[in-house]
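seq:
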Amino acid sequence: MHADVQTVRDLQDVDQSIGILTARIDAIPTQIKQIQDQLNQFQHAYEERKTRLAANQKERREMDADVQMIRGKIAKHKDQLYELKSNEQYKAMVHEIEGEEAKIRSIEDRILEEMSEAEQLESYVHDAAARLESERARVAAEIKDLEAERSKDEAEREGLQERRQTLSGALLPGTLRLYERARKSRGTAVVPVIDASCSGCHVKLRPQYYNEIRTSDTLHTCESCGRILFYLELATDKGVEGTRVAM
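struct:
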């Protein structure tokens, strides 16, 4: 096996680990925002219900005042009934009193509806107020855990990046160029030959080229996809179990 093959395999392992860590690190701001949004939505709903409850209470006070005012008018009209001179005036006053009483019934129906809504709002506001501090504490704890995870991953990635510099510096320039080109275009740059095929693109190798990979210490790439190849000899070919990499 070519001296650079094991190094590029190690480099690929490092790059894959760096990629996993980077994806986790990059995802954390979104995760934090999602957690904060959940709290904001909960708090917004709480404040919205509080505002609606206050408006409900104000509306009921105003309707109660309207009812009292109308009742005052009715009482005044009833006192005036005894002062009327004609039957027509009496009937007109009675009709007006009946109209005012109908207004009271309509307002009282609305008050009952508002009271029913107020009961629901009060229940929600009471429960939400009890939960709000615990929700804030939960969100703060989850964000702290995510930030600690990010710090840990960043430290691990920094160590891997140093390891990457060491490995890439140990490679021949031509090998590094092959590796970087294949990694950029294919994602996976180094793959084993399995069953006389490139395990990256699954194209069958030419018999002569396959034999060269098996027997020589020259660096080989797949003629189809450009990945760096190494020979993975099946131990069953030797009459034993397991696998090993031909060196």
